[in-house]
Amino acid sequence: REGKNHKRGSPRASPSTNWSSRNIHLCLSPLPPLSLSLCFSLFFTELVKKREADFQKMQPLDSFNAHGKFSLANQAHVERQRKRRIIIISVSSVILVTMVVAVAVGVGVSVSLHNATGIPQPSDGTTETSRAITAICQGTAYKQTCIDSLSSSASGYDTTDPKELVKLSFKVTIDHIRKAFSQSDLLKEAAKDVRAEHALESCKELMDYAVDDLKRSLNHIDTIHSGHDVDDLVNSIKIWLSGAMTYQETCLDGFENTTGDIGDRMKKLLKTANELTSNTLSIVSQISSVLNSFDFSLFRRRRLMTAKPVVGNDGFPTWVTAGKRKLLAVPTSKIVPNVVVAKDGSGDYTTINDALMVVPILQNETFVIYVKAGVYDEIVRIASNQTHVMLLGDGPTKTKITGNRNFIDGIPTFKSATF
């Protein structure tokens, strides 16, 4: 209690007291949430140590009676007081530190949401939804577009289910493509040349394909469960989404060499749709990690996304069904076609397009069209809803399909292909 620079009887500040007085101001200054909680934790730890040290200093004095003799009763009484004080201080410290951590976490979430969206987030029932949306949009190329579109569409109901948010991303993208699709009718009125009109027609068709691929992907999101191979399904969805992006880009390519501002106007209409499609592809690409961050148990039985498809002994990938394997393994001469196309009239139809007219829509069974030897001067188009169609010929030098469309004649490149 005495020192060179202290008067007799004046207490010297203990190290813990110096730490407390020096750092309590630091704890009260602006700090990151985790640093704030750590600061207060250290403060109360030092406080407990100080109280214990002060009490231990008092113990030898209290352990002797007035005659200077050691008293067991006094020692027991001091020990009980010591334990009681330790318990009270410890419990109080734990409760207060817990409260500080809880506040720090709340502040941290609020700060992160503010930084992510640029605006403070409300602290009502929509906070959890906003937090989930921010998390699922983290890896997207157009983060703000992702957050804004999902937040506006998610208003009115609360959900933190990543699966529902992924589905919502698909729905928002489809809505924006349909919006551009409907407005393209207005743009057609402003078209001043033939190429622009053809480009608009191609865009309608291409956006229809894009919507179909998005719908197909959306429908398969609901089929994800522990009984399916998640990786194969996610890869299929990524392929369909990539196709949707390609359709939109091909749409804009058709406006090259056109007059007026029709191409720029269509580009503006598709800007948000392109960004949303790209974002949805990014979300699906990281779907396993995102859903696992929410402890989505359905994705625990997953393989590495980089795993290569397994090829069976017959040379076909494992995703090829048994029926398709059998059909592909059979020699073409032994396959029984559904219809026959012959140029000389010896078959069911004389043109391939006529045969395609009888193909069932969205069928699950393979529809085989046998095209006999001959030169078929036609542009063959198989619609996207004509599924599982197989064409057989008599060989590359005998069965030929040809056309005479090209860009020079004013035909868009997208529609100039023969098949």
From TrEMBL:
This is Pectinesterase inhibitor domain-containing protein. The keyword Cell membrane does not apply. In the N-terminal section; belongs to the PMEI family. In the C-terminal section; belongs to the pectinesterase family. Gene3D superfamilies: Invertase/pectin methylesterase inhibitor family protein (1.20.140.40), Single-stranded right-handed beta-helix, Pectin lyase-like (2.160.20.10). Pathway: Glycan metabolism; pectin degradation; 2-dehydro-3-deoxy-D-gluconate from pectin: step 1/5. Residues 128-283 form the Pectinesterase inhibitor domain. It comes from the Eukaryota. InterPro entries: Invertase/methylesterase_inhib, Pectin_lyas_fold, Pectin_lyase_fold/virulence, Pectinesterase_cat, Pectinesterase_inhib_dom. It holds the Pfam family Pectinesterase. PANTHER family: PECTINESTERASE. Keywords: Aspartyl esterase, Hydrolase, Membrane, Transmembrane, Transmembrane helix. It comes from Nymphaea colorata. One of its GO terms (biological process) is pectin catabolic process. SUPFAM superfamilies: Pectin lyase-like, Plant invertase/pectin methylesterase inhibitor. GO terms for molecular function: enzyme inhibitor activity; pectinesterase activity. The chain crosses the membrane at residues 86-113.
